[in-house]
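Example 498.
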Amino acid sequence: MIARVLSIAGTDPTGGAGLQADVKSIAAAGGYGMGVVTSLVVQNTRGVQQVHTPDPDFLEAQLRAVSDDVIIDAVKVGMIADQASAAVVVNWLRNLPSNISVVVDPVMVASSGQALADSVSADLLTCATVLTPNVDELAALVGKPAASSRAELIAQAQVLAEKTGALVVAKGGHLADDDRGNTLVNATGELAHAASWFVDTTASHGTGCSLSSALATRLGLGESPQVALEWATSWAHEALQYGEAQAVGTGNGPIDHFHRLRRQAKSGLQNPAVPDKRNRHQPVVKASGEHTRELWEYAGESLDRFGSDGFISALMQGTLSGSQFTFYIEQDDYYLNIYAAVLARLAAAAQSAEERSFWAESVTGCIAVEQGMHAQWNLDPSTVHPSPATLAYTDFLRAETGSDYVVAVAAVLPCFWLYAQLAAFVPDAIPEDHPYKDWVEAYRDEAFQASTARAVQIAEGLLAAASDHQRAAAQQAFWRACQLEADFFAQALLLDTL
Ligand SMILES: Nc1ncnc2c1ncn2[C@@H]1O[C@H](COP(=O)(O)OP(=O)(O)O)[C@@H](O)[C@H]1O
Ligand SMILES: Cc1ncc(COP(=O)(O)OP(=O)(O)O)c(N)n1
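Predicted structure in complex with adenosine-5'-diphosphate:
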């Protein structure tokens, strides 16, 4: 399904805020974007210069042109400059079918300081399914000073929810906290929270417009307000992180609305033949000689794909959605089960008693981790179905560990080595309310790093003694496994993109 979403908003010729940002956000969130202009705004990344508001009749004619022709699944309302425009929009909204979600972003003042509206119509607020005021707008709407803590913000949002009957997103973008996330509130209090860890950026123009449009789209797709807010917050958080790279304007630049789609398009592209041998990542577990040093060079591209620019970054920041995390855990559980069986084959094929017991201990370790997961996350393995990416990895491991021991060791090595590398991505301080704190901290496990060092050492010894032909096959197997490891991690982020 594609949600047909209408934005009713003012314009931004530089495309960072207002209607232009809304239409991009709607597309990025999986909708078909439409736009009715309330005011023509002369603005850029440095600020607002002029506002021209057309006659209310012209606004009404635009609204009718859309609703006479198109079935609308959701509406986002942004800048409404005056009461006459608000009255037209309210009248039009009241004639919509009651099942259409309406997100009202009560825009008052641009972040650059200029006023965009006289005031916000009380009638408009009562037409909303969800309201998305920022800290200052919320304070103005409930007649209180701006909140300086999350608790105060939630209390004010609760007052607004009582007054209007709408759900209110208490947006923490302007709080001074590490978590600038968004809390969904109704008249009785907090319903859900979506974290957004602070991004230090000079490109945050239009974040509020974009968040509310993405939220409207996800509601139009049929998601619950909680799930829709989680999606919109994590998407906006990602878009904030990559805004500066667009180099748009000399002031507060726009967020990158399409970063996620670009990254995903890239992750679908695989270079099947020539590995990029430049690896900018310093290994947490060092190579043990020239052969494993060369293998490490093959891992760079994969690490880029799931480390700093993907799943692991979202996991570390705490912005991975609950459904993405659950999916990952389930697939990991399936994977580890097969991985244990594959390690058992290595134990059987090992060439010394010490190596045999190393692989056998790894089998036991793998099973312990898997069982720990069942207990901690309440997994029922009989209900977990492997995804295509998971199966591609496990099938590959089964195939590559069937004959040559050197190739087999190279094929299982990325699961040790790349996993141990995740320690490099763990932030120094993990906030207490980080949703995946325990999981993320486990990446620093020193016992696992010691096992990885031993696996690397075994691989080095085998490669040193191998024939040229065997060494080339082992390198190929290592590189393929790195790619599959990256695909395995990347898949969770693709899960609920649209
Ligand atoms: N620097 C930031 N770091 C992390 N998240 C942010 C940042 N700026 C904005 N956000 C997220 O985007 C949402 C909307 O941004 P905000 O600045 O609050 O809205 P507005 O643009 O309406 O003032 C915030 O609630 C927050 O979740
Ligand atoms: C036409 C128009 N509408 C709304 C805004 C304000 O956008 P917002 O997302 O709140 O972002 P910043 O003001 O923080 O950039 C706008 N500038 N123009």
